[in-house]
Amino acid sequence: MTGVERLFRTRLAQELLRESPGLLPFANGVLNLATMQLSDHRPDYHFLWQLPYDYDEQATCPETLTFLHQAVGNRCEQVQVLRGYAKAVITRRLDLQRYLELIGAAGTGKSTFVRILHALVGLQNLVITELKHLEGNRFELGDIRGKVLLSVTDSERYGGTINTLKAITGQDFIRLEEKFKRRHQDIAQLMVVIAANEPIQSQDYSNGLVRRRLSMVFNHVPATQKDLLFYQDGSWHGDLADEIPGIMNWVLAMTDDEVHALVKHTTHYAPSLLHSWSEAIIDTNPLAEWANHALIKADGDSSNVGEARKLDGSNRYDKTTEWLYANYRQWSDDHGHRYPVASNRFTGILNDLLTNQLKLQNAKRHRDMHGSQFLGIRLRGEYDNAIPPLITPMTGHDGSMTGNMTGFTLDNDGNDGCEAYLVHLHERLLPLPPCQESAEDGAEEKERGVGGPYRGGSKGENPSYPSCPSSTRGNASYDPSAPVMDVPPCTVSDSASLTTQDPCPHCGELRLKPFKSVLVCHKCGRQSPAQAPQP
Questions:
Q1: Which of 113, 280, 309, 102 is nearest to 195 (CA)?
Q2: Where are the domains of the chain?
Q3: What gap in Å lies between CA 334 and CA 226, rounded to an integer?
Q4: Does domain 58-280 sit in CATH 1.20.1560.10?
Q5: Which CATH number is 291-379 given?
Q6: Least-confidence region, from 81-85, 180-184, 217-221
Q7: pLDDT digit string (tens) for 425-462?
Q8: Which CA distances in Å does 390 have to 137, 331, 361?
Q9: Global confidence as pTM
Q10: Nearest-angstrom CA–CA distance, 290 and 120
Q11: What does the DSSP assignment read for 202-247?
Q12: For residue 79, which of 279, 221, 258 has the smallest C-alpha distance?
């Protein structure tokens, strides 16, 4: 029998082809993400998975939107970040190289959002694990082929290595091994979400983890606790269970340019999350915690790294006001850190923190006959109390901050209330009004062709990354630190003024919503002139 089985395996073996890009399989058909048209299932699509519910283009999700706004304190930009990551999960935007880390105490809603993602992709398309198993069990990823989401639940503190997590989120090849079967290597075709009570601790303090982490803090505890979504007896229950198809419609309505901006350059387009980002660095990197309080920017100054040399008959270190490493070791001892960074790693980790993570332009490592030095920074002195911390100078204790992307909250019209934020986001993404012709169009196309900053436009409006990967990946060259133009409301010269009952002249969508003096398309986000009200 073993020989017969081996013969059949050899004769009947076929190569598993990759699934067709730009399509999304539902229970009642396959949705084309470019045209948003539903068609029947076909074998040549090569899908090994499908979403366990029907596609319903009329479905909505008002209860879910209310929950999300309450969970993030009515900050629309944070709601849109969650929306963008949900679409990145559905469309497998591995190119973003980001994982979502939800931090918060029990009852703050982080688990509810994770269950929303679970319901969107379906339990059969989900891998649930813990970091200790992901990193320590070589068989843990043996059955991830065809899965969409990797969900990590870590309520307990974890402080080990995260090499597998970095490989998955970095699109690196990982070893896939099943018991009694031949192992092989492949790239994990899934996104990652982590829910924990505190940030994931690791011995890796480099930029490799920081640039992949998208941290969001849930701290709103409702007065009345209610299970909005839970799985029982083979199906989902709760107030949000019937809204899963509506949540999918809401997620798919976000454009890929918005997803790329909000997920890849999160703190630039959602500055209220800068506090979460900086707190995550400080909580997970003891060297960053020391630098936040002990270092200040000082162009033209330099500081020696030095060494940690204790004074005779004392637990104090010599030259703590002059040498960086001596100051760090004294701070570590005073704050009870049992395992401070060794001197041979200190310089490299500090250089990575200042250069790659904080991106301080004038701070750099320098070496001369006197040893290693850092230019552009110095130790804080007794007269520097008025100078803000190095990492957290722009945010308050509650994460509030000022900026032209904040201030958008939930409207009282029963809708999402974030159209104003999305319009503002489009204005920052687009260098010219999307429907305004200009003599500079040719120059703009030339700039894109040579790798210049690309901020969207007609070539970046593909509804799904798999349907047009080249245009979406063009956004990777965009520099979020570059100044962003303020774009005036655009005007349509070749069409008459519209009402909310008219279709969008750009994409044909029938959902136009008023915003200031224009109408905004719910699907493509473009603006059209509104017809003046009749007297």
A1: 102
A2: 58-280, 291-379, 419-529
A3: 44
A4: no
A5: 1.10.10.10
A6: 180-184
A7: 777 775 433 333 333 333 333 332 222 333 333 333 33
A8: 39, 16, 13
A9: 0.74
A10: 41
A11: -S--SHHHHTTEEEEEE----SS----SEEETTEEESTTGGGHHHH
A12: 258
